[in-house]
Amino acid sequence: MSAPPPAPVPPHPVPTPASPALFTAAAAARLHAHAPYSRFLVGAALRTADGTVFVGANVENAAYPQGQCAEASAIGAMVAGGAKRIAEIVVIGAPADPNVDASGLCTPCGGCRQRLREFSAPDTLIHVAGPEGVRATFTMDQLLPFSFGPDNLSF
């Protein structure tokens, strides 16, 4: 009996230029984050196919599970604005203190990956950035391979 083939590994993400306006909108939203507990500020800006931009910031709460991620905030604004599809998103995260190491990637959490999946195509670009610029770009399929989404419920 032979061993099963290894699971496919997504290609390594590379920085891909995001629209300067989208990056600027995410950076501005990050500055409005409410993060008194973690002191880690996150902003997100997403663009729909018609070019409309929606932003969000992380909003922490003293009752920790009640907080909201920047991506979820931006998606909520998009849905409230009548849109249902993400064409591209920039997520910028870094500590509030510029003297703290911020070199790691601030990728969307598991819950936000699923939220993004609900409103994205497999090739939707997710740009992960720090205050200085985009650090890596993923497609939705790279960020959440073998995902469960609306198409799985199309019986």
From TrEMBL:
Q: Write down any Gene Ontology CC term.
A: cytosol
Listed binding positions for Zn(2+) are C69, C109, C112
What residues bind substrate, as annotated? N58, V59, E60, N61, A62, A63, Y64
Catalytic residue list: E71 (proton donor)
Chemical reaction(s) catalysed: cytidine + H2O + H(+) = uridine + NH4(+); 2'-deoxycytidine + H2O + H(+) = 2'-deoxyuridine + NH4(+)
Q: CMP/dCMP-type deaminase domain: which residues?
A: 17-151
- Database matches in Pfam families: dCMP_cyt_deam_1 (PF00383)
The name under which this protein is listed is: Cytidine deaminase
Q: Which family does it belong to?
A: Belongs to the cytidine and deoxycytidylate deaminase family.
What EC class does the entry list?
A: hydrolase
Gene3D superfamilies referenced in this protein's UniProt entry, alphabetically: Cytidine Deaminase, domain 2
The family database entries (SUPFAM superfamilies) matched by this protein are listed as: Cytidine deaminase-like
Q: GO molecular-function annotation terms?
A: cytidine deaminase activity; identical protein binding; zinc ion binding
The scientific name of the source species is Nitrospirillum amazonense
Q: Which EC numbers does the record give?
A: 3.5.4.5
